[in-house]
Design a protein that fits this description.
Helices cover about 25% and strands about 40% of the residues. By secondary structure, it is α+β, with helices and mostly antiparallel strands. β4 and β5 form a beta hairpin. α1 runs parallel beside α3 and α7 runs parallel beside α9.
Length: about 375
């Protein structure tokens, strides 16, 4: 039987924090060989030391993780403080493959079943969205979950050792039973339109009208009178054509030109795609999180042994109104199972890079 053990610490000194975590992991299974680790910025400059100490003390050489401006575990969220969360398991080494870069993945045997890949990416890499799109085919019927490192100064990913600059992580074979789910944090407003003219990331016209005019109609007269108020509240949404769940990608609004009616959006744009506008909405975020949790619990046939949760930096206490609320909602539905994760600079699900979402993976 696979075991998943959780440890956490918010001690300021990294060595003291590791000692506290190691104590919580006792008794450590003798064949434990894989661990997940997430640390906040305050510990990032010592992450190499932390990994060496963990490997020495546990004998675990396969660690997967990254740095987050906030991190999380069962019922707990850590913001703006030194913190470490760990989850270790005794999965057999022949059940997974660790990769340090998407360009260095070894040949994998053919399979008709999907392969889960837990991935972390460096947000400074401008090709990351393309790498995420390509990786599922590269690993053969793959499905990605994960997130982009969020940090003020350090952009480390952990894939057996410290790496940066690319996409790294771990690929599980089909003997590892999992279920995954995604929850949105923004709700659509108004209608779905068509982006008719754009240049790079600039939306020039929507439905052959100035993009700003269409947005103003959708967000309403009050917000339209003071566009400074829409920052962090109104977003662009792009419905996905190849899904039957009404899924959509949320992208930030980066700027507005009131003279030309153009809108700058945080993504490379193409004419002819559907576009809508969304609002950040705590109430509907709670409702959609509960929908996802109910669905994933129904699909999880058997015992849930552990989990990973990747949420957006704009969620957590900023969306749910108080610290720990998001993680407590998960525990209220699924129980106090071991879960670790972090608040990302973009969330990965399937072959896409999302924003303002939560991505949950459960090991069965």
């Amino acid at each position: 039987m696979d075991h998943y053990l959780l440890a956490k610490s918010h001690q300021q000194d990294w060595q003291t924090a590791i000692d506290a975590c190691l104590e919580q992991l006792q008794p450590l299974p003798s064949d434990a060989g894989l661990g997940f680790i997430y640390v906040t910025d305050s510990h990032a400059n010592n992450l190499a030391n932390i990994l060496r100490e963990l490997e020495t003390q546990t004998g675990i050489s396969h660690w997967i993780g990254t740095v987050g401006m906030a991190i999380c575990c069962t019922r707990t969220e850590f913001y703006e403080q030194p913190a470490i969360v760990l989850m270790v398991t005794d999965l057999s080494a022949d059940q997974y493959t660790v990769f340090k870069s998407s360009q260095e993945i070894p040949a994998l045997p053919q399979t008709d079943h999907f392969r889960l890949a837990v991935t972390h990416g460096d947000p400074r890499n401008g090709q990351l969205a393309k790498l995420i799109e390509q990786l599922p085919d590269q690993i053969g019927n793959g499905y990605l979950v994960g997130g982009l490192t969020s940090s003020d100064s350090y952009y480390y990913q952990v894939a057996g050792e410290l790496v940066e600059g690319n996409l790294s992580g771990i690929i599980f074979d089909d003997s590892v039973s999992v279920v995954t789910g995604l929850t949105q944090g923004c709700s659509p407003i108004g209608n779905i339109h068509q982006l008719t003219e754009c240049d790079s990331n600039i939306a020039i016209s929507i439905d052959k009208r100035p993009a700003l005019d269409v947005m103003k109609e959708e967000i309403g007269e009050v917000l339209s009178r003071d566009l400074n108020r829409i920052g962090g509240y109104i977003f662009a949404g792009f419905p996905l054509a190849d899904t039957d769940t009404g899924d959509y990608l949320v992208r930030n609004l980066l700027g507005i030109d009131v003279n030309t009616g153009a809108i700058a959006i945080g993504d490379y744009l193409q004419p002819g795609v559907p576009i809508m506008f969304c609002k950040r909405d705590g109430k509907t975020a709670v409702e959609d999180l509960q929908r996802m949790l109910n669905n994933i619990k129904r699909r999880a046939k058997g015992t849930i042994k552990g989990g990973l949760y990747f949420s957006c930096l704009g969620r957590g206490q900023y969306m749910f109104g108080e610290a720990h609320k998001e993680m407590e909602l998960i525990a209220e539905t699924l129980g106090d199972i071991p879960i670790v994760g972090f608040y990302a600079n973009g969330e990965i699900a399937g072959n896409r890079l999302y924003g303002y979402t939560g991505v949950l993976t459960l090991f069965l």
